[in-house]
């Protein structure tokens, strides 16, 4: 019989239990033992759900307290010197993720964080040095296997493979990190032997870089690594996802493993290649259920697409999710406010377990009334969604069709615009600002919740939010910031907020997914054509501007980020969806300018995230995505200054496209990399103004004046001081007021000191 399994399950819990417990532990409200009990309870619950749904294996190793790559780094003993302790503990991982408190007058910076391939999940980048030693140092995976064995579950373990781990790491000097591979593989062999010693037959070993372009050296790395790993007794399921193996297919299927997993959601056409190249007696795991979106699976189509494979392979065909379900919300049954039609179109992680099991059962020849009803309902739902009148808007389609190149161009070149803006805005050297959000206090969250629950009226809600805005403005004036923001108290999330106000979007109550660590988001659901029925931010920004004589910055989320951080439609192209959003944002930008807002920030942190994993597909994406940003920003006069913000990504590969955005000012995350990322902007000769982040807002540390002064001084070695802004790495909504005000006070002081220093130099 064919088998069914998933690559991983969301670890946060249906009610974000893990997030809440970890944050309580950080605050000192619960003990480590109490935190560990929460994790153990969640794991047992999720394993039982997989069995109850009819899957043949549970997946062990997908749980992480913060991030699975970080957990693997601890397992392998890859701990930066600044975080090394006698024994690696859970607190070691948290210190690496958040930055540790000052010790002996020094701060231990958090590890660099970047996007996991083209998802909105972030991982902690392993830091390797030339004399790196790998040694098994943290036993989380083995302990969880033992835990699942005690509960009597049929286990398939999962582990990120050595070649992908090495590829995803960074080095602190210029050396070939492939030189570390032999020792790394030796350590992996020890880990695999420990897994085998627990009686685990199958190990899902994930090598996601196989769907990317690989040089000959990296292709060879797979050959040598798996020749060594195959000497063990483990049955290895070589796992790829997020795209097609493409020109790496022959390499992948030549490796001496016992099975292969491929993503048939993102790359359905690779099934034919897989069936041709699959070695005799090897397993093929078909990732037929989309692990990254929330649309209900067309069961009949999925069964049909796998029938040839089933006929050819028999019980050597496994049915699976395309990737880990951690990118999906946990349980659709928790959604009590979605309308019944829309809800019928959706499937969250829990429902996807049943979809996988049902597809597998049909392929295995099971025929009962329950399965027949599931197939019948699936077919009816797919038809209902395709023909629903709520999806299509002819006016929106006509407006997108009428877009011209002129719509994506500012009136003048940057050199002319910046001169006009300098005269209009009259900003000092090293102007200071923030990225947009300020602490979301419990009072703010309570007010929003009371309004949503109809406990308070709209007028009461507006009055309370205005009081929060006025307080934020007063605090910023006292700190001496140059360009202020209204603090965004009315926003639950930088994308969800806009999704709630745009036609064509739906939003969930409990559709949480993990972005990084304890940061969870509820992506809006794009189900139809998108338009803006009314202004979304203008009244808040206008009120904030009325409270001060200083410049007030309007805050918007860009079209590419709204797309990437939403659950998108699968019936029209991503480009068309983005252009619809761009026109809606353009209307908002024009209205902000007319309301007297002279500085407008359009955040695009997801631009790099959306980049296709294959180079041959990247330029087309960059062309339409940067054009969409320019459409959103180009309806204003020269003297209105457009900012954008990007964070936690690698800029080097897309510098021409970042320049093509033609934002007057770009603010970026650079403090975790000690301004190293600015070298990309220098090598490329980036033409516009830049605000490199001078402190890490994801760390509770309050950076000193000296720390930030040095970072800005470092930045001045890359960028002309006349083009430098001073700002944090990202928004401040997750921080508390005491640390926020202390950090911003130091930031402003550092900027003032540097104005004096560089004025004297001039």
UniProtKB/TrEMBL annotation:
Q: Which residues form the Cobalamin-independent methionine synthase MetE C-terminal/archaeal domain?
A: 430-752
| Residues noted as binding L-homocysteine in the record, renumbered to the chain | 435-437, 488, 603
Binding of 5-methyltetrahydropteroyltri-L-glutamate, residues: 16-19, 115, 120, 519-520, 565, 609
Give the cofactor note. Binds 1 zinc ion per subunit.
The Cobalamin-independent methionine synthase MetE N-terminal domain, residue ranges: 4-312
What EC number(s) are associated with this protein in UniProt?
A: 2.1.1.14
Where along this sequence does the record place binding of Zn(2+) 1?
645, 647, 669, 730
- Indicate yes or no for the key word Amino-acid biosynthesis: yes
Which terms does the record give in the GO molecular function aspect? 5-methyltetrahydropteroyltriglutamate-homocysteine S-methyltransferase activity; zinc ion binding
UniProt: Zn(2+) binding residues = 645, 647, 669, 730
| Listed SUPFAM superfamilies | UROD/MetE-like (SSF51726)
Give the pathway: Amino-acid biosynthesis; L-methionine biosynthesis via de novo pathway; L-methionine from L-homocysteine (MetE route): step 1/1
Q: Which domain of life is it from?
A: Bacteria
Q: Which residues form the active site?
A: 698 (proton donor)
Enumerate the UniProt keywords alphabetically. Answer: Amino-acid biosynthesis, Metal-binding, Methionine biosynthesis, Methyltransferase, Repeat, Transferase, Zinc
Could you say which cofactors this protein requires? Zn(2+)
Q: What does this protein do?
A: Catalyzes the transfer of a methyl group from 5-methyltetrahydrofolate to homocysteine resulting in methionine formation.
Q: What is this protein called?
A: 5-methyltetrahydropteroyltriglutamate--homocysteine methyltransferase
Organism in which the protein naturally occurs: Moritella marina ATCC 15381
Q: Which gene encodes it?
A: metE
């Amino acid at each position: 019989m064919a088998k069914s399994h998933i690559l991983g399950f969301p670890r946060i819990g249906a009610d974000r239990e893990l997030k809440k417990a970890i944050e309580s532990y950080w605050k000192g409200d619960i003990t480590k033992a109490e935190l560990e009990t929460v994790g153990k309870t969640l794991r047992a619950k999720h394993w039982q759900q997989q069995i109850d749904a009819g899957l043949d294996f549970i997946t062990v190793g997908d749980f992480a307290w913060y991030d699975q790559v970080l957990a693997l780094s601890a397992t392998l003993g890859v701990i930066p010197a600044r975080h090394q302790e006698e024994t690696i503990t859970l607190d070691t991982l948290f210190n690496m993720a958040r930055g540790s408190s000052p010790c002996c007058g020094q701060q231990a910076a958090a590890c660099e964080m970047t996007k996991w391939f083209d998802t909105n999940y972030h991982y902690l980048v392993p830091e390797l040095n030339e004399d790196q030693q790998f040694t098994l140092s943290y036993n989380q995976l083995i302990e969880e296997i033992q835990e699942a064995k005690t509960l009597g579950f049929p286990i398939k373990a999962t582990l990120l493979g050595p070649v992908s781990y090495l590829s995803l790491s960074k080095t602190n000097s210029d050396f070939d990190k492939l030189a570390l591979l032999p020792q790394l593989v030796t350590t992996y062999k020890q880990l695999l032997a420990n897994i085998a010693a627990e009686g685990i037959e199958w190990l899902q070993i994930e090598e996601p870089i196989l769907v990317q372009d690989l040089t000959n050296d990296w292709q060879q790395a797979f050959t040598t690594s798996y020749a060594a790993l195959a000497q063990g007794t483990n049955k290895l399921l070589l796992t790829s996802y997020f795209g097609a193996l493409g020109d790496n297919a022959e390499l992948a299927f030549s490796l001496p493993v016992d099975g292969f997993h491929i993503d048939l959601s993102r790359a359905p056409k690779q099934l034919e290649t897989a069936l041709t190249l699959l070695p005799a007696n090897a397993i093929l795991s078909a990732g037929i259920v989309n692990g990254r979106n929330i649309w209900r699976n067309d069961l009949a189509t999925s069964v049909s697409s796998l029938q040839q494979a089933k006929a050819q392979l028999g019980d050597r065909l496994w049915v699976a999710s395309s990737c880990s379900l951690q990118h999906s919300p946990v349980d659709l049954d928790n959604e009590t406010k979605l309308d019944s039609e829309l809800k019928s179109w959706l499937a969250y992680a829990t429902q996807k377990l049943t979809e996988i099991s049902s597809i597998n059962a049909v392929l295995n020849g099971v025929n009962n009334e329950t399965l027949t009803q599931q197939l019948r309902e699936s077919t009816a739902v797919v038809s209902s969604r395709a023909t629903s009148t709520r999806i299509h808007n002819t006016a929106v389609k006509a407006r997108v069709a009428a877009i011209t190149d002129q719509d994506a161009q500012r009136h003048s070149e940057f050199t002319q615009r910046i001169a006009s803006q300098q005269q209009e805005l009259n900003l000092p050297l090293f102007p200071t600002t923030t990225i947009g959000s300020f602490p979301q206090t419990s009072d703010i969250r309570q007010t929003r919740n009371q309004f949503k629950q109809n406990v308070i009226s709209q007028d009461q809600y507006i009055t309370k939010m205005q009081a929060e805005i006025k307080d934020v403005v007063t605090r910023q004036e006292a700190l001496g910031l140059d360009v202020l923001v209204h603090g965004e108290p009315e926003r639950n999330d930088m994308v969800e907020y806009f999704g709630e106000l745009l036609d064509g979007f739906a939003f969930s109550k409990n559709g949480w997914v993990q972005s990084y660590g304890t940061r969870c988001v509820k992506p809006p659901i794009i189900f139809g054509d998108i338009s803006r029925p009314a202004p979304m931010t203008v009244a808040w920004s206008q009120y904030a501007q009325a409270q001060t004589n200083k410049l007030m910055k309007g805050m918007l989320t860009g079209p590419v980020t709204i797309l990437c951080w939403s659950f998108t439609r699968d019936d029209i192209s991503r480009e068309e969806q983005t252009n619809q959003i761009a026109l809606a944002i353009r209307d908002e930008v024009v209205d902000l300018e007319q309301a007297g807002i002279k500085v407008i920030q359009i955040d695009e942190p997801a631009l790099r995230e959306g980049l296709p994993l294959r180079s041959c597909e990247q330029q087309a994406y960059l062309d339409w995505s940067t054009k969409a940003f320019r459409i959103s920003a180009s309806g204003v006069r020269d003297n209105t200054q457009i900012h954008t913000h990007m964070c936690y990504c690698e800029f080097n590969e897309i510098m021409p496209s970042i320049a093509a955005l033609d934002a007057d000012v770009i603010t970026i995350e650079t403090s975790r990399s000690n301004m190293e990322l600015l070298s990309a902007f220098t090598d490329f000769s980036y033409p516009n103004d830049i605000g490199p982040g001078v402190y890490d807002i994801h760390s509770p540390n309050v950076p000193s004046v000296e720390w930030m002064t040095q970072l800005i001084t470092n930045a001045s070695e890359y960028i002309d001081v006349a083009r430098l802004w001073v700002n944090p790495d990202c928004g401040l909504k997750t921080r508390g007021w005491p640390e926020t005000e202390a950090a911003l006070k130091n930031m402003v002081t550092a900027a003032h000191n540097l104005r004096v220093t560089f004025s004297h130099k001039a």
